[in-house]
Amino acid sequence: MPFNLPGILAPLHLLINPRLVLPSVVVKDIRQIDFQALHKAGYRGAVFDKDNCLTIPHEDCLVPELTDAWRECRETFGPGNVLIVSNTAGSHIDVGEIEAESVTHHLSVPVLRHASLKPSYSCIKSIRAYFRSLPQPVRDEELVIVGDRLLTDVIMANRMARKKLSRGAIPPDEKRALIEERDEGSGPALLDRVGPLAVWTDGLWKRESLVLRAIEKGMLKGVERWVLGPQEAAWREGLQHRFVKPVSVVEEPAESRGLVRRIWERLQR
């Protein structure tokens, strides 16, 4: 794993704005994401992490179980509107961009070339530049950002949100939903911000960085307990019901999982 200074400094930013670590939607893996519902709501582009989200870490081929969901995603958003942003493939450590070319070949979508790692603002700038360069540019609030790491993928998505919305900046369906929620008295704190939908995949295709992941989950639980109000929690639950398919994900029996895995899962509860 490359040295990631922006990721190391991210927890310090949480001291100022702890909501940065809050995902909008939580799924086990991308099979649970309702891509057609997202597109219908006005989302036109998607950004995906690679390792443990789409592929086995340090491999370039799609996890076979995700084949149908990945095809649905690409068909829903269209060519060029799905982008891989990885802290390995396409980053400054990808000498000669060999890994980026391999990932593009195996996943059939472009890989962002970026000099600074997620969740840095420089990486965000590169993402924005890519989607603005499309024949039909995609705004931040029309993006879905999907990844398995809270301190990189989720924080990056939430850093892209901005204050002082203009009504024309929100996709029509989302604007109507926000107005309805405002009229019902729910989610007032969210109406002054607009940005990508942050989707956290909390399942693992291969065990790695278990201690760091447990710390991330502890941070999330702390923020949910001490910062998240009941109205905002209800708003997030509404997003969960709206954009997540009731797809059951088969898990291996507890007996076949290692001791470290079982301890880690206990810490997550």
TrEMBL record:
<dbReference type="InterPro" id="IPR036412">
    <property type="entry name" value="HAD-like_sf"/>
</dbReference>
<dbReference type="GO" id="GO:0008962">
    <property type="term" value="F:phosphatidylglycerophosphatase activity"/>
</dbReference>
<protein>
    <submittedName>
        <fullName>HAD phosphatase</fullName>
    </submittedName>
</protein>
<feature type="signal peptide">
    <location>
        <begin position="1"/>
        <end position="23"/>
    </location>
</feature>
<keyword id="KW-0732">Signal</keyword>
<dbReference type="InterPro" id="IPR010021">
    <property type="entry name" value="PGPP1/Gep4"/>
</dbReference>
<dbReference type="InterPro" id="IPR023214">
    <property type="entry name" value="HAD_sf"/>
</dbReference>
<dbReference type="Pfam" id="PF09419">
    <property type="entry name" value="PGP_phosphatase"/>
</dbReference>
<dbReference type="InterPro" id="IPR027706">
    <property type="entry name" value="PGP_Pase"/>
</dbReference>
